[in-house]
Amino acid sequence: MYSTYLFEGTNIDVPHRYENLEYQGFGAQGIVMKAFDTQTQQNVAIKKLTRPFAHPLSAKRTFREFVILNLINHQNVVKLLNLYTPQNDNINEFSDVYLVMELMDGNLSTFSLQNYDQEHLSFLMYQMLCGVNHLHKSGIIHRDLKPSNIGFRANASIKLLDFGLACAENSASLTGYVTTRHYRAPEIILGAGYKANADVWSLGCIFAELITKTILFPGTNHVDQWTKIISIVGTPNSSFYETLTDTTKAYLNSLPKYSAKSWESLLPDSLFPSWEKDSELTAANARDLISKMLVIDPKQRINVRDAINHPYVKLWYKASEVDGLASPSYDITIDDIEHDVETWKRLIFNQIQTWQ
Ligand SMILES: CN(c1nccc(-c2cnc3ccccn23)n1)C1CCCCC1
């Protein structure tokens, strides 16, 4: 029934239909292999989840990823092709979960955008905005977008690879894998309320990084992350503080006050590939879009749908990609449900049975 391979000290069990396994990468959630699916005659990515229900939080994240992958159908979100466990006969032995997904050529953290041109950069941003827009239309807020969970193909197509559920807990403590917080919105770092445009902040950080090839806010911890943010975009005005607790407010007010740096100084024309003289894809338009995305106060920050209308990306607009039918709405209560591990395990096991 299953062939077993050993990669990076991990046993990978795959049904005989998948052949020629090759190691692809390792992420917070697990190890990813490339394989050839002899039934569909196509290459696929097989992701073995690391300890999928070791903690209630990782179990919730595993279940949430299945629910979302089953719901979402958009060309800028990776598709789930199959779901299996080698322990399919007995839930008491159930321990490993494998997701079979569309294969990408890599992700934005492995892909250095050497000799890309303005069209390529603008098209990448348009597709990221389309993928996130589709999640938002289905009631999903990612909260943890970063270069490593944005897949790309050599033909310049982009697909979101996973669905976040960022919360303070899922740092090194749970999975032994430090999840980077360099791309997290200020309201999430400060534990304040957040809305869908928390994801816009992350995309703005990724956008700047594609241009400068360095991390815009490389904070070493939450405090340093906030300090790096305000040293570049400037200390926010008082209206942002209204949403914070008194202790957070008092702490933030104790910090030195910074004025915003100019985006022209941070992202000079020299960093951008050249552009046609009458094109909209100018460094000035790119900077203008970034300046609307990297706004600390979410009430002042642009949302995804309006970002897609910005001159820097709107030239790619296709109604079917942006304003098409949303997937059935994600049941947001899943984000707030607390189950014990056994319950999550049963829910996940049942989800897998629907694929058999
Ligand atoms: C979260 N991750 C993930 N989720 C779903 C699908 C894929 C995927 C699809 N094709 C490829 C090709 C190379 C590497 C990853 N993939 N990757 C990755 C985990 C490893 C590190 C990069 C992200």
Automatic annotation (TrEMBL):
Its EC number is 2.7.11.24. Belongs to the protein kinase superfamily. CMGC Ser/Thr protein kinase family. MAP kinase subfamily. Keywords: ATP-binding, Kinase, Magnesium, Nucleotide-binding, Phosphoprotein, Serine/threonine-protein kinase, Transferase. Residues 18-313 form the Protein kinase domain. It holds the Pfam family Pkinase. The keyword Transferase applies. One of its GO terms (cellular component) is cytoplasm. GO terms for molecular function: ATP binding; MAP kinase activity; protein serine kinase activity. Its cofactor is Mg(2+). SMART domains: S_TKc. It is found in: Cytoplasm. It catalyses: L-threonyl-[protein] + ATP = O-phospho-L-threonyl-[protein] + ADP + H(+); L-seryl-[protein] + ATP = O-phospho-L-seryl-[protein] + ADP + H(+). The lineage of its organism: Eukaryota, Metazoa, Ecdysozoa, Nematoda, Chromadorea. The keyword Phosphoprotein applies. Responds to activation by environmental stress and pro-inflammatory cytokines by phosphorylating a number of transcription factors, and thus regulates transcriptional activity. This is Stress-activated protein kinase JNK. InterPro entries: Kinase-like_dom_sf, MAPK, MAPK_JNK, Prot_kinase_dom.
